[in-house]
């Protein structure tokens, strides 16, 4: 009865008081701060986001690399310790020839494909995390 | 084996390269076009281009030659050249692209904000590039010499001129097309002949490749000795021809070559009889085909050390090669860079199936190369040797053309990237004119070097370039990308600690004769000790100098690792160093 409804400026001040007053409620205060902004402003939280991403990618990269290259790297040792292995034949090829010419290619491709898939997934997860409003 | 068709093939490849380059000239207008093909290259084009650029003389002729001479230990070359891309994919592909760096020095500056780190990286990139160009030119000399009998320097000169002219006129965009085209050309040129050769081998009764016998001449074989050669004959054999044996001049008559060592004079031409065991070069291990097919048979001292050193150099060196890095800039984003690398892995795997087959067939059909030491020529000689008449000549021409494509494409890629480094960091000349001047310089230096080097196998020389890259630029990339604790002082110290010894070792092996000294293997395969040295020094010195952590390293890390489309603000708004394309606008 006291205020005429069509007037515009009136609801705003009342609304602002309501929204900003409970400063202690963390979820509400955080709302406008997306992960993107945390990172851009180089806050502690932003640094944590980045450390998590970099750590995950580093772990992934190193493990794929170490498994694939480690498996290959064992071969010279194997052939040096036990020269008899060199005399095995698979598909008409000597074992070293078979392993190094034929078997490595699919193995490397598989490792690479797995890495690309996982790396893209962890980037998607990171994007969802930081873009959540 | 002078062959008209082969000369035509080499000419066609050279002219084709120039034509595709000129076509590119019409499309490349701005400075940015010139440097980075405006980043409009799709992953398949890009991957083909990387493959085309990467498959060098070492891959096309060198690997087959080494396998032919030394057996399966040398399979680590193709495996390492391929696996290097897995390491590159998992450790640096996406961050490198996201750094926005066009050359390695650009990366160094973007990451460390330091002119000092940039300068050291530039010098190392130049050294690696030139070290890598040298075997390309030597390989070109060898090819032209094998197919036409022209002097060695001519092939090197032809490649230098074609590449320099092409790069000067077209820049990088045309180079991308040229390179992509070259990959498919090379794959065709190495695959089609080997299919025919295997069919012929089967038709001849598929002789075992691993008989417990020494390689023997399949027919009366005329052998020309290009340089003074010391050979060892197991059994006395009767040879005919003109030349010099043990200092005695022989004019068109026969002579009995007793068992033991003999010096054959330069320019000698002798016919060796059918079924006689092939005398072997005194410096090369002599194995029956059965022994040859087993690991650790290459007769080197410390074969295990050699194998691991080679593995370390090739696995880690790929990422430090200047012409490989450039290609990542032409990907639109980090994700595309990864996918491109995965395709490259596939393309290389297919190609590297072929050279070992040439090497193995060479034991049966071209054993005289074990005696002359021209093992790198095995790919070029096999087709005409195994298939008579026009068919063999045409296949031989195809291989020669493919080999020439290999020298042209790798040299082009190297010259482009070296010219980029030279114009930005050494001559400090901007714009298209600076790039052109640098191109000439980038080509001339290795051409001059070919006159003083001591013909070692091309794949070995390339291995040395990999060792230097793995010991200096690889630590810079790996630690720079994955650790925010690396300091400018640490980066410089690490690059020098790994790079200088590796480079010195490489130059000593290439230009001096170390003979049989026990440390010879440490110099010719330095990676196993220089790579750990580079990594350790870089990390430890960084920990000791934490005050010199570059400013804004956190923001740089965001730029390197965060996906591009998130609206993250990564140093572009800050007073960072100009990245490659910004610089080249000037």
UniProtKB/TrEMBL annotation, chain A:
Residues 1-36 are annotated as: Disordered. Keywords: Membrane, Transmembrane, Transmembrane helix. This is Uncharacterized protein. The keyword Membrane applies. The chain crosses the membrane at residues 60-81, 93-116. It comes from the Bacteria. It comes from Lentzea waywayandensis.
UniProtKB/TrEMBL annotation, chain B:
It is found in: Cell membrane. One of its GO terms (cellular component) is plasma membrane. InterPro entries: Na/Glc_symporter_sf (IPR038377), Na/solute_symporter (IPR001734), Na/solute_symporter_CS (IPR018212), Sodium:Solute_Symporter (IPR050277). GO terms for biological process: monoatomic ion transport; plasma membrane acetate transport. It holds the Pfam family SSF. PROSITE patterns: NA_SOLUT_SYMP_2, NA_SOLUT_SYMP_3. Residues 565-586 are annotated as: Disordered. It comes from the Bacteria. Keywords: Cell membrane, Ion transport, Membrane, Sodium, Symport, Transmembrane, Transmembrane helix, Transport. The chain crosses the membrane at residues 6-25, 45-69, 75-96, 116-133, 153-171, 183-203, 305-329, 341-361, 394-422, 434-456, 462-482, 489-512, 527-545. GO terms for molecular function: acetate transmembrane transporter activity; symporter activity. It is a multi-pass membrane protein. PANTHER family: CATION_ACETATE SYMPORTER ACTP, SODIUM/PROLINE SYMPORTER-RELATED. Belongs to the sodium:solute symporter (SSF) (TC 2.A.21) family. This is Sodium:solute symporter family protein. It comes from Lentzea waywayandensis. The lineage of its organism: Bacteria, Bacillati, Actinomycetota, Actinomycetes, Pseudonocardiales.
